[in-house]
Amino acid sequence: MATTNDLKNGMVLKLDGGQLWSVVEFQHVKPGKGGAFVRTKLKNVLSGKVVDKTFNAGTKVDTATVDRRGMQFSYKDGADFVFMDTQTFDQLQVNPEVVGDAANYLLEGQDCTVAIYEDNPLYIELPAAVELTVEYTEPGVQGDRSTGGTKPAKLETGYEIGVPLFITTGEKIKVDTRSGEYLGRVNS
Questions:
Q1: Residue % of the chain over a pLDDT of 70
Q2: Which tens digits make up the pLDDT trace of 47-96?
Q3: Residues whose CB is less than 8 angstroms from the CB of residue 126 and which lie 6 or more positions away in sequence, other chains included
Q4: What's residue 48's pLDDT?
Q5: In whole angstroms, what is the distance from residue 122 CA to residue 21 CA?
C-alpha cells in the first residue's frame, strides 16, 4: 500500500478489481480553493490502454510489485516462446499472446526484459532497435538509388517491413521495435 503522494513514473498500481496500471505521468495540484489532488495518466499493463485518472491527495492506492528480469530468448517450443533468465539460467515459457508484436523481432539469443507479476509473465520489452538480416527483397532497378520509394522486404524472423529501394537481400538493417520502421543499414 502507498498513498498518492508516493507516486512515481513507472510505478505499477492495482486498481479496478485487480487490474494492473503503470503510472506514465503524474502531477500534484493544489488549487487555491478546496483540497489538493493528484492528476495521473495511467497505462493498462496488459492492454496498453491509456487513461487519465484523478485521486484526492493522500488517498491510499494498492501497489503491485512487478519483477522486471533481464532474459534471453532461447527457442520456440510449439507455439510458446522459451526465455532464459540471464542471472539464474532458469527457463520460462511464455505464450504468444504475452509476447505479442515482439515476436516479429525475436531471434535466438536476443536479450530483452520480461515483466513478471505473481509468477505470470505480463509483457516482453525489447530494445528500441534491433539488427535483422533481409531474407528476401526484390532487386532494385538501376537508377532507384535516390531517396523516396520503398519496397517490401522479408526479414529473417519472417516479418515484412518497407525498406528503401537500394536495400538488397542479405543486408543487415536496423529496425525500430516500437513502430516496425526501417532505421538504416548496419555497417559490418
A1: 95
A2: 778 999 999 988 898 988 888 889 999 999 989 999 999 889 999 999 88
A3: 102, 105, 106, 110, 112, 177
A4: 78
A5: 12
**38: which residues sit within 8 A by CB, 6+ positions away?**
4, 5, 7, 26, 27, 28, 29, 54, 55, 56, 57, 59
| Three-state secondary-structure class, residue 104 | helix
Cα 150–Cα 154–Cα 160 angle in degrees, nearest 5: 70
Mean pLDDT in residue range 89-107:
89
Q: How far lies 144's CA from each of 141, 148, 150, 151, 183, in Å? A: 6, 9, 10, 11, 19
Could you tell me if 6 and 28 are in contact, meaning their C-beta atoms sit under 8 angstroms apart?
no
DSSP string, 114-156: EEEETTEEEEEE--SEEEEEEEEEPPPPTTTTSSS-EEEEEET
* Comparison of pLDDT for 148 and 127, the residue scoring more: 127
Mean pLDDT of the residues in the chain: 87
> Which domains are delineated in the chain?
11-64 (2.30.30.30), 67-125 (2.40.50.140), 129-185 (2.40.50.140)
Give the total residue count for the chain: 188
